[in-house]
């Protein structure tokens, strides 16, 4: 896969992360591949530890009015594409590269949002679009972030379940959901996972393989310990 120059922040994102160093020690990052159970883990941890969840999939809608064609060309272009068009017009490799460019362009928005939130309790960031190299300048220690990567079987079950929810299916696959589109998405996600593993190894971040064998509560205990969230309520 051809890697775009988005492995580390640049431009506005670089300036934002430099200024934010040391100010987000209360933030914990849950990232990784699609269909890995990030949201489920975030909900359990938030309930147990009184944390606030920052949901990247919802926050990105608030980024749209803030983007410009000059500073955010890929994100700005994506806003005008119909649902599901990502898979119609791009190969898995192209879709993965496009996703990396979009998250590089929008990372500064995410950091700005987090800096504006109260810091009186933990914030859990639940977002597919955070790569280890982007987060590295913001972490006071590697275990502030965990990356969940699903096995192929775990991901397949998750994506098929999403296809049964009309709203989520429309957003992800557009007006149709053929098996060929699912195959493209799975191939794109394998490329994304490989990049996450490569970057996580380089930065000493924790990668957890999600295969469905462990109870969610047990996984939450492990992650809470890594995050130093304290005793569960």
UniProtKB/TrEMBL annotation:
Top-level taxon of the source organism: Bacteria
InterPro entries assigned: P-loop_NTPase
Name of the protein in question: Uncharacterized protein
């Amino acid at each position: 896969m051809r890697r775009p120059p988005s492995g580390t922040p640049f431009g506005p994102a670089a300036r934002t992360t430099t200024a934010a160093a040391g100010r987000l020690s209360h933030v914990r990052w849950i990232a990784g591949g699609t269909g890995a159970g990030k949201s489920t883990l975030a909900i359990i941890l938030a309930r147990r530890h009184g944390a606030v969840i920052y949901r990247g999939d919802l926050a990105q809608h608030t980024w749209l009015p803030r983007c410009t064609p000059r500073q955010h060309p890929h994100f700005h272009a994506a806003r005008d594409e119909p649902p599901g068009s990502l898979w119609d017009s791009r190969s898995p490799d192209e879709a993965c590269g496009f996703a990396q460019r979009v998250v590089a362009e929008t990372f500064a928005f995410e950091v700005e949002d987090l800096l504006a939130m109260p810091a009186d309790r933990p914030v859990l960031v639940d977002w597919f679009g955070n790569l280890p190299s982007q987060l590295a300048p913001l972490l006071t220690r590697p275990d502030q972030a965990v990356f969940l990567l699903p096995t192929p079987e775990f991901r397949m079950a998750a994506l098929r379940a999403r296809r049964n929810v009309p709203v989520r299916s429309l957003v992800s696959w557009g007006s149709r959901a053929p098996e060929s589109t699912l195959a493209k998405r799975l191939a794109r996600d394998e490329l994304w996972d490989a990049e996450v593993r490569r970057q996580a190894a380089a930065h000493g971040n924790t990668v957890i393989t999600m295969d469905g064998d462990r109870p969610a509560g047990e996984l939450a205990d492990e992650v809470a310990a890594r995050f130093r969230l304290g005793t569960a309520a």
